[in-house]
Every structure is written in structure tokens, then in C-alpha cells.
Write a sequence for this structure.
């Protein structure tokens, strides 16, 4: 178990990177506490796999250091870093039993059989595999195999960190729930440092205490799920997290007040906004309601999502989406939208006004 | 225009992959096949397309028997989960390929490719090869090829499964717009209940090689005709429990008394299985018809705007999904409230009673 420090880390796949553009991972400094549950979240190509490979030792960073409990491991090979990894596709031995699969990482390291037996049974019990320990792994379904992969990642008690690279991508939704909650439960029980890499916001937000959102090789925000949801630092986070994402509307600020298409809009951070920048109002669909007054809009489309409906509207040339709970009625014709001021933010050139470090 | 499957079945070796199936799909409709992996979605699509031959039954297109007609002779397009394009063709030639095969003249090909590319926002990429495209653009190219020739039947087999979350959301929004105004029959397979809901249209729920129900999507979601359909069409899983109904109350978890709720009050006394969706089970009582229960918290998932709480209630797991952040501690005992008015009552064979 270890605290992980990334100190001014930067990586390029070019031999002689010249400009910032040449870096797949832009300069990054972060501290991850021992025993925490972290997620790296971002679209394809955002640099999250590069970062994962740097931590595991598959890549050596162009610049900067990786420290485990203060000790520099930047140049250690993967096997000397003492890391467990679980991949997108199950990596198990079909010809071995479930028991032997789980025992494999321990036997490899010469752990005494009595200790192995204790650990395998413990992990087997946590993953509800006790009844099938003596079965051959070959007959299992994809989720059954992935459960063993998770078990193999969790079985060693001496690892610094357990890393998960999109571990639930190949799993059906109804089983995803089970595996995801199992993983969360296991983290709460064994308190090992875990890093979970994914492009799926639901997986990241539900698994991690702290989510690192990446885009274009840069960390755009690192925060708790609530912080990312309620106060995105950047419009990218507003858009990427939440389904549908945050509404972004062009605006101007005059005399300390924000206006969208001539309508005054109350925003929490309007006092910090400078008119020199490209300004946008950001408000999530969850924080918009239909009322007697407010911004006039036309309903374009209503999609049923079960527990709520997504109402897409057009107002002065902008699309505004809002959520209406199941069972609540939606008026027809012209409607008026009001934004919850404590959850309405002004963004300057993409960054939250007053919040940029 | 319609496609009709009449008593279709499919066996491979001794295994039955599709059981006796009847289904009628109309031109201009968007139809979702919803079910888990191996429930038979792909096999059913292949039967519709003519890629596979049924063991029994007939397939009628526009009332004409096409059971034995090869896929090449039917006007069908297919898009797969994997992004399938010609790697050595550029985007333009990829989209144009079915039209060239059909021997269409150059100016018409140009017009159609231009229109399809516009619709799928590929116009700036027409000269690029698939390897120079993102996953989303590669799949857009495959979809453009599927719509360019005015197929009668367009089959989409989990086309968004390999895309990033946000791209999936974007294309999910666009797809119905792309097909709107066409007379084609569109069939879309997915494992995700939310995706089916957001598409609207019609849904066929599939389970172990059978269509359990077919009809307008939101009707199917709210009034599933049996418990299997309700289970297939619920994410997170629908909560179920056996109840004893007497007069205006029900006994649940063998010991707790709840009001019978709107549906429960109208049915005969007896034993039922109830189903309550997770979003109707909340930390705060919402309705007069609430039923409370205690359970042990197994896991709490907080997503920033929602809390999902998994509880152990005397050996069965119930899930609650609610607005706001409710950080219940794992292992603690917590009280939840179910809105019994929203409960579905199923009979001994799983059929919906009320």
C-alpha cells in the first residue's frame, strides 16, 4: 500500500518533443493518498492510458517523477513496482481451476501454501466464488471470468496499488451493476489504493472518491463526484459529466449582471466574470425548471428515460435541455424556463469565472 | 411495406437459438431488440436479413415469401458493433461502395454520398481513410454506407457499444433524426434498457431466444406483460418480492405490512410477486402509499446527482435510486420507503395481474 505522487510528470511518444503539442501527457502533478479509490476519466485519446502505463512502468516518463511513498520508482520495471492490474478483457488460465487462478499470483511470488489458501478463500468468499473454487475456469461466462480477474488483482496483500483499465466494458448492464457494487464493496473492505480508468462517467463517479477528468493530455479537474457535478471547473467537465451534459449558453455581463439573449440570468459567480473573455452561462438540465416566468422557449423533443424525461427546447437560437420527473406534466406551446441561481455558473474562455488557479 | 416473421425458429446442432417467433415490423418504424448477450438478438437479425436460414417458419416481405432468398438479393444494410469499413478506401469510396455494386451512375452516386455524408457530418473527412478517423467517425462512415442505398431493412447490431460514452450519447440523439422520413424498417439491437427508452419507437424484449413482448417502448416499460419483460427492461434491476395480499394491505418480506397501493387494492386476495423499480424506492417517503422497510446497506454509489443504495433485506437485495446525495454507511441499518402505488403485481406464472 502506498501514497502515489506524480511530480511534474510529462510524457511524449516523440524522441525529441519540441512543442507542447508533442506531449501525449501535459505537465501533471498529483498526490493520491494511500487507500483511496480514484478514477481517471476521459474520452479516447485523452492520455489516461498513457498515465496508467507510466504508473505501472510500461512507459518511462519523458520528464518528471513517480513516487511511491516518497521513493522514486520512475525507472523501475513493472514487476519491481508491485502493482496489480485488471484489464478490459479477462486474463485467466482456462485450463486451471478458479482456485488455482486466484492462487497463481501468490504462487508466483513463493508465498507459503497455507497463506495462499487463506487468501484465496478470503477473496473467493468476498466475490461469491466459494462454491465454484474447484471448477475449471473454461466453462465460465464473460462476467464470471472477469470476476476471477478482479480476484487475481485483489488477492495479493503486498501490492502498492491495484489498477483497473476499463474492467467492465465487456460486461452486460445488468451484471455491470453487480460487479461494480462488488468492487466498491471490496474497496470499502480492504482499503487498498485503487485506480480505475474509464471513459464511462457512471462507472467513474460511482466507484471513486476522487475523479481525475482528463482531456487532450491535461487534467481539467480533480474532485469528488459532487464537486464535478455541481461545480465543473471547465465547460468540458460540465459537458462530459452528466447525461445530458451541462447546457452552455452565450452571454454578456453588464453592470455586474449576466444576460442571455437579453434575459437577466442570476449566476453564483457573476461578480467574478470579466467581459473581455468569451463568456458562457453553464447550467445543468437537473437545475432548470418550467415556471410562469423566465426564458421563453419552445419544446423541440421529449425523450422518455424512465424515471425522468429529457426535454429539449430552443430559446433564442440556443438548445436548452432540462429534466422533468416521471409523472410530472409538461406544458405545451411556449414555456418559460428558470435556472437555479446557486447552480448556474459563468465560464470565461471555458474556465469557471473566479475559479481559475 | 412490412416484414413479417411467421413461426420462425432456429436451431444450431441440438441447441435451439430462437424459439417459435412471430413478429411484424412496419415500414418507417424504429424497432429496438432489447436483451442481454446471448438472448438471441443477433441471430434474429441474421434471420431477418437472410444471412441465416430458419429451421422452420416463413419470412414475408411486402407479403411475399422471402424465406429462401439470399441476403444479396434482399435490399438490406447492416451495421455491426465492430467498425467495419474498407481500410484501403477513403470515406467517399466506402460510402459509395454499395451504389457502385448496384451500377448507379456517377452523378447520382455523387449526389447520394454527399447527402449521406452531410447527414452524418462526414463532409470534411471524405478524402480520409478509416485509419485516419476516430472510432466515432469510423462508425458514422459505416452508418452512412448503410443508409446511402435506400435499403428496405436496416439492421444495427449494438452499433454504439464500442464508442465512448459521450459519442454514444451524441449518435443516439442523431440516429432517429437520420432515419426520420425514410420508409425503411430499422432494427436496433442493444443490451441497455436506457438506450431503448431514449430511442422510443417500438421495443421487443428478448430472453433466452424468445421475444417476451413487442410494442411501443414506453408502454412496454410501464406495463410489461410479465416479470421477465420487467426484468429485461430495468436498469438497475427491478426489485421483486413475494407478498401476501389481504384487503387493503400486503405483507412483504414475511413480516412487514404495507398499504396495497393503487394496483394492489383492485386485485383478489392471495400470493403475488411484486416488482418496484429502484427509483420508486427512496430514502425519504414520497407518497401516502409508502411502505417502509429496514435493511443492511451493502454498498452506496454516489454519482454526483444521484444515490444508488444496495440493501440486503433478509437475504434478498433491493436497490434504491434517488436524487441527491445520501451517503449511507456500509453495514449500517437504514430505512427506505417504497412507493407502493408504482408497484406491479405478478401472478404465479409471472404474468402481470395489475
Amino acid at each position: 500500500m502506498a501514497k502515489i505522487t506524480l511530480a511534474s510528470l510529462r510524457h511524449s511518444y516523440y524522441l525529441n518533443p519540441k512543442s507542447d503539442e508533442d506531449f501525449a501527457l501535459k505537465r501533471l502533478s498529483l498526490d493520491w493518498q494511500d487507500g483511496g479509490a480514484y478514477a481517471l476519466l476521459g474520452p479516447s485519446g485523452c492520455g489516461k492510458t498513457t498515465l496508467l502505463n507510466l504508473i505501472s512502468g510500461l512507459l518511462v516518463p519523458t520528464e518528471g517523477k513517480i513516487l511511491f511513498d516518497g521513493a522514486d520508482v520512475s525507472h523501475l520495471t513493472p514487476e519491481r513496482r508491485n502493482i496489480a492490474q485488471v484489464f478490459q478483457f479477462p486474463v485467466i488460465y482456462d485450463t486451471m481451476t478458479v482456485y488455482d487462478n486466484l492462487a497463481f499470483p501468490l504462487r508466483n511470488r513463493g508465498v507459503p501454501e497455507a497463506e495462499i489458501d487463506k487468501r484465496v478463500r478470503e477473496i473467493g468468499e468476498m466475490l461469491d466464488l466459494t462454491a465454484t473454487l474447484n471448477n475449471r475456469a473454461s466453462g465460465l461466462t464473460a462476467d464470471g471470468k472477469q470476476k476471477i480477474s478482479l480476484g487475481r488483482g485483489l488477492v495479493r496483500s503486498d501490492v502498492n496499488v491495484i489498477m483497473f483499465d476499463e474492467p467492465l466494458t465487456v460486461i452486460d448492464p445488468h451484471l455491470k451493476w453487480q460487479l461494480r457494487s462488488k468492487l466498491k464493496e471490496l474497496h470499502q473492505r480492504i482499503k487498498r489504493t485503487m485506480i480505475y480508468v474509464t471513459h464511462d462517467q457512471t462507472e467513474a463517479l460511482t466507484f471513486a472518491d476522487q475523479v481525475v477528468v482528463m482531456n487532450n493530455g491535461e487534467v481539467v479537474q480533480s474532485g469528488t463526484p459532487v464537486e464535478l457535478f455541481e461545480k465543473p471547473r471547465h465547460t468540458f467537465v460540465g459537458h462530459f459529466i452528466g447525461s445530458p451534459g451541462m447546457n452552455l449558453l452565450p452571454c454578456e455581463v453588464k453592470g455586474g449582471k449576466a444576460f442571455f439573449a437579453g434575459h437577466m440570468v442570476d449566476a453564483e459567480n457573476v461578480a467574478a466574470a470579466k467581459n473581455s473573455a468569451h463568456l458562457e452561462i453553464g447550467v445543468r438540465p437537473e437545475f432548470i425548471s418550467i415556471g410562469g416566468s423566465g426564458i421563453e422557449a419552445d419544446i423541440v423533443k421529449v425523450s422518455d428515460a424512465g424515471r425522468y424525461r429529457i426535454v429539449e427546447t430552443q430559446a433564442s437560437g440556443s438548445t436548452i435541455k432540462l429534466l422533468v420527473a416521471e409523472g410530472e406534466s409538461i406544458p405545451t406551446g411556449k414555456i418559460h424556463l428558470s435556472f437555479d441561481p446557486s447552480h448556474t455558473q459563468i465560464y470565461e474562455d471555458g474556465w469557471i469565472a473566479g475559479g481559475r488557479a | 411495406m412490412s416484414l413479417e416473421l411467421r413461426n420462425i425458429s432456429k436451431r444450431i446442432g441440438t441447441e435451439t437459438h430462437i424459439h417459435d417467433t412471430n413478429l411484424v415490423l412496419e415500414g418507417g418504424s424504429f424497432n429496438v431488440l432489447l436483451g442481454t448477450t446471448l438472448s438471441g438478438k443477433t441471430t434474429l437479425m441474421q434471420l431477418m436479413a437472410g444471412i441465416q436460414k430458419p429451421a422452420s417458419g416463413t419470412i414475408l416481405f411486402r407479403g411475399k415469401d422471402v424465406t429462401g432468398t439470399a441476403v444479396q438479393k434482399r435490399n438490406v444494410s447492416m451495421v455491426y458493433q465492430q467498425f467495419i469499413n474498407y481500410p484501403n478506401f477513403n470515406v467517399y469510396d466506402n460510402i459509395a461502395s454499395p451504389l457502385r455494386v448496384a451500377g448507379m451512375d456517377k452523378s447520382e452516386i455523387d449526389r447520394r454520398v454527399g447527402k449521406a455524408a452531410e447527414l452524418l457530418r462526414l463532409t470534411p473527412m471524405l478524402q480520409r481513410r478509416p485509419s485516419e478517423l476516430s472510432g466515432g467517425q469510423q462508425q458514422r462512415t459505416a452508418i452512412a454506407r448503410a443508409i446511402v442505398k435506400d435499403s428496405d431493412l436496416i439492421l444495427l447490431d449494438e452499433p454504439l457499444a464500442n464508442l465512448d460514452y459521450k459519442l454514444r450519447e451524441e449518435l443516439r440523439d442523431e440516429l432517429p433524426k437520420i432515419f426520420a422520413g425514410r420508409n425503411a424498417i430499422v432494427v436496433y439491437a442493444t443490451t441497455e434498457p436506457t438506450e431503448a427508452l431514449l430511442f422510443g419507437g417500438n421495443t421487443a424484449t428478448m430472453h433466452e431466444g424468445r421475444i417476451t413482448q413487442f410494442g411501443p417502448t414506453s408502454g412496454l416499460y410501464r406495463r410489461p406483460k410479465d416479470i421477465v419483460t420487467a426484468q429485461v427492461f430495468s436498469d438497475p434491476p427491478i426489485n421483486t418480492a413475494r407478498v401476501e395480499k389481504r384487503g387493503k394491505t400486503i405483507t412483504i418480506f414475511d413480516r412487514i405490512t404495507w398499504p396495497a397501493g393503487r394496483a394492489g387494492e383492485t386485485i383478489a386476495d392471495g400470493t403475488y410477486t411484486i416488482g418496484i423499480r429502484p427509483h420508486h424506492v427512496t430514502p425519504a417517503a414520497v407518497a401516502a402509499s409508502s411502505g417502509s422497510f429496514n435493511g443492511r446497506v451493502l454498498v452506496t454509489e454516489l454519482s454526483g446527482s444521484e444515490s444508488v443504495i444496495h440493501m440486503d433485506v433478509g437475504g434478498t437485495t433491493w436497490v434504491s435510486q434517488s436524487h441527491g446525495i445520501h451517503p449511507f454507511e456500509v453495514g449500517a441499518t437504514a430505512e427506505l420507503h417504497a412507493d407502493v402505488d408504482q408497484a406491479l403485481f405478478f401472478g404465479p406464472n409471472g404474468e402481470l395481474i395489475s
Observations:
- The first helix of chain A runs from residue 48 to 56.
- Residues 247 and 313 of chain A are 11 Å apart (CA to CA).
- Chain A has a mean pLDDT of 91.
- Chain A has nine helices and 22 strands.
